[in-house]
Structure formats: structure tokens, C-alpha cells
Amino acid sequence: MFDITVYQFSRAWGLPNPSPFCMKLEGYLKLGQLPFKVVEQNDPRKGPKSKIPYVKIDKQMMGDSEQIYEYLHSHQAIDLDAPLTDEQKAVQHAMRSMCEESLYFVMLYSRWMDDANWEQVRETMFAGIPKLIRPVITNQIRKKIQGDLVGQGMGRHNRAEVYSIGTKHVNALGQYLGDQQWFGGEQPVKLDVVAVSYLANILKPPIETPLKETVNKWPNLVSFTDRALTEIFGA
Ligand SMILES: N[C@@H](CCC(=O)N[C@@H](CS)C(=O)NCC(=O)O)C(=O)O
Q1: Number of domains forming the structure of the chain
Q2: 67 and 34, same structural domain?
Q3: What are the tens digits of pLDDT across the range 146-180?
Q4: Long-range pairs for 217-224 at CB < 8 Å and ≥24 separation?
Q5: In a domain, 79, yes or no
Q6: Which of 42, 188, 227, 234 has the most CB atoms around it within 10 Å of its CB?
Q7: Which atom of ligand 1 is nearest to the CA of 53?
Q8: Is residue 16 domain-resident?
């Protein structure tokens, strides 16, 4: 049995984590019934890939939520996709990539670039930072993330274009889940953990975005989110 410590952002908004990558890693470990400790870390520069989350497994530091899963999987500690056929695994790999390589950046845009939400994000996500220094710290983070979004490409689109990209991703998740309880059918698999990490991070924060409106048009995704929060995260 591995000794696992997860370094992740402080919790916020009543969510397991405001970072979908942190939430996903925690969900993988919970669904796989692997015991772990959590250490709050809000400085990505401390991680081996300068990103959060990262872990210490026994004495080894490791970054990247998916590479961490792969390491545990290759050591027979976890196998969340065991119930899937190879074809399902291929489709769900693509859906995970859609969430992590594109929907994630739409969500980042909604928090850090969309002026309509910024005040609300600052006052609720960073409520733990004293009010006097909050603007200075949060403006620095905002500037850095806006630069990242421009570098990645999402930040070069206009608002309507960004949300139209996100809408297609949410619609794809809603269509693919259909009337199943889980993306794994009878039981949750990796994509269930991925999907709830994005859907809860869209639905639960007190930010009104076109993304939230789109998710709310899919009753199956709304009830899936509550089911997954309860059954995977015990939330
Ligand atoms: N591929 C990484 C992505 C992790 C990631 O992007 N983390 C963000 C927070 S949600 C981060 O640390 N960003 C800080 C930065 O880019 O400087 C994973 O799966 O763990």
C-alpha cells in the first residue's frame, strides 16, 4: 500500500476543490479507495511541474493528475476503467481530453477574463485573503492567468465565441450521458470523476455564466452532478 500525500489548493465555494484537476485527483483516489492525506498548497511553483495538484507517493514527488493515476495504475493500485470495453475507453479518453484541454480554459475564462464575473470571483473565491491586500494579490494572479489564456489561445476569442466552444462541450457530455446513471453505465469510472469535477465547478460557484445556463438545460447532468458529489466525494 502506498503512502500518498496530495498537495492541492484550499477548498472554496463548498466544493471539494475549485480546481477541477485537484478535484479529479481526489475523486480518483476516493473512488479507488486509496487512503491519502491532503496538504493545502496554493503556490504552484512548489510542485515538480509548477502546477497543482502534485503528490508525494512514499518518497517520490510527482506532478500531473493523469500521470499520477497512470503511475498508480501501472503498480496495480487502481483500475477505475476496468468495467469499460476498449471502444468505450477510447471515447472516454477523448471526452476527458475535451474537458481538460478545452472546457477547462472556457471555465478559466469565465473566472478570470470575463469582466461580468470578476468582482464576484474575487470576493468569494478569495474570501480567505484579508480584504485590504485582496485586490493586489488577486490582480497579480488575474494578470498571469489572462496571459496564460492568450498563450493557450482561448483568450484570443471574444466572449460569445468562448462560451459557444464551452456550450458544445457541455452538450456533448449531456448527450453522451443520456439517461444512464454514470458514464460507466452501472458504476462510476474515470470519466464520471472528470465530468463531476467540471460540472460541479460550473454549477456550484455563485457565478452566473452562459456555461451554467447550458448545464442547467440538461437535467441529467444536473442530477448526475449531485449524485457524483454524494457518492464519489461524500459531499
Ligand atoms: N495537466 C495538469 C494540469 C494542472 C493545472 O493546470 N493546474 C493549474 C490549477 S487548476 C495550475 O497549477 N496552474 C498554475 C499555473 O499554470 O501556473 C494536471 O492534470 O494535473
Answers
A1: 2
A2: yes
A3: 999 999 999 999 999 999 999 999 999 999 999 99
A4: 217/174, 218/170, 218/171, 218/173, 218/174, 220/174, 220/177, 220/178, 220/179, 221/170, 221/173, 221/174, 221/177, 221/195, 224/177, 224/181, 224/182, 224/192, 224/195, 224/196, 224/199
A5: no
A6: 188
A7: 20
A8: yes
